[in-house]
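Morning F.,

Quick status update on the modeling queue. The single chain you submitted on Monday has been processed. Sequence for confirmation:
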Amino acid sequence: MSTLVDITEQLPATEQIQTDGTTWETHAACKTVDNAYDLFFSDDIGEISAAKRVCAECPVIAPCLETALNNKEQWGVWGGQLFMNGEMLTVKRRRGRPPKVARPEDLMPVIPVPIHLRERAERRTA
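Structure tokens below.
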């Protein structure tokens, strides 16, 4: 039995099947969100922020991002990261003093890329 577990742990997250026979998509937090498509594929900063907050609490954030990288997703929020024109957008802190009034993009949650996906993600970064 331990051999089976060892083999399963070596599979990429996107190929792992849960102990109850389901795949990671079944456990995704976005499955419970009304109008998830509109939220996760929006151009609105507020909706993108809301989608990223859903991802931040998701138990399958890493396999979701891995799937997006494998499928070369062009648009949307996947695994807590924003993809536009096939590139993963990163949010960098601005230099200097913070503005008196926060910019909308400054309010987006920053979700770190899982360690095992960082190298692949850097190749897709704008």
